Amino acid sequence: MHASASWQEIVARKRQQDLAKIPTPWRLSPDVIEQAKQRRSIADDFVDGLLDSDTRRITNLDVPALMELTGNGSLSAVSLTTAFCKRAAYGHQLNHNLLEIGFDQAIARAESLDAHWQAHRKPVGPLHGLPITMKDQFHVNGMDTTMAYVGWISPLKPQPQSQIVQELESLGAIIIAKVHFYLCSLDADDTHLAASQPSLKRWVHLKRTTTS
Description:
Structural class: alpha/beta
CATH superfamily: Amidase signature (AS) domain
CATH topology: Amidase signature (AS) enzymes
CATH class: Alpha Beta
Strand content: 5-15%
Number of helices: 8
Oligomer: single chain
Mean pLDDT: 84
């Protein structure tokens, strides 16, 4: 499929596809991105300062508190998922930490979980509505698996969902994205051409979304 395209063209197309998956209202201005480049750390206070109060409040709660709220219906899965997707979108634009973005399908799944709660007045499971990210070695429906290799970028080929993904979703979790390996390791920095520019470990907290 890519026989006639250079790797630079493939990567450019991939980056454009990723940007298109971020809703326009969540896209940061060039000035904000430039400010982030001048900082040694963009964790916590910098990202928090960009968020609206509801998103900031939700994404600063810990997992037990979030699961209590979604379990008793005080917080919808859509509100929870949207908040973390927004924070993840900001983090990605500042530090290129996502390899695959699945915000739309995550919010669609959250809607189905909310419908279940409305119909049955109980959560699907103990992780009802919990937004999580996965390492890009696991297959997730609707997302490609490249592990950052340019040569693996291709039109989406259906793959059976990884067992751990099936189990997490059966408990109510919602996969919002796939992440770089450096977020799950001790590497000082990474260059993932498939994802974007080099990603330095200037930790961008997605708060308490879970990475596998």
